[in-house]
Design a protein that fits this description.
By secondary structure, the chain is of the alpha/beta class. The protein has one helix at residues 2-24, and strands at residues 26-30, 33-41, 46-50, 53-69, 75-88, 94-97, 104-117, 124-135.
Amino acid sequence: MDDDNEIENELINNLVNNYEKANCNKIYIENMNGGYLNLDVDDTKSVYVWCCRGVVVNLSGKCNHIFVYKSDDVTLRVDDCISGLTCMKSIDCKILFKTTPMYNIEVSNSDRINIRSSFFNTPVVYRGVTMNIIKSIN
């Protein structure tokens, strides 16, 4: 019986530790209306933009993944992103990459999304979207 309790406690502790560790690597930008935000990120950080309106976010450095959800008129300037971009239920967003993500860009149920980069070597998966993919030299 003690072995079962010990195993159960170890599993619970591992779950709590992994949850806390995962949350330490997330940057949340929530319910922001208007303004500019400059963030220095590293490759362990994922950025979550939730329910924002009229915001310009500059991500300096290399982040892991970017999530944009239920946002309107958001501009993201991204130096580098390892994993990808996920954009859902958003309107009039501009994502400006210096370097596109290595794995994928996913956009769904969104309207008037502009994705700009100087080089596209990443699959773009989309559904229920009006968007522009712009190849730019600048």
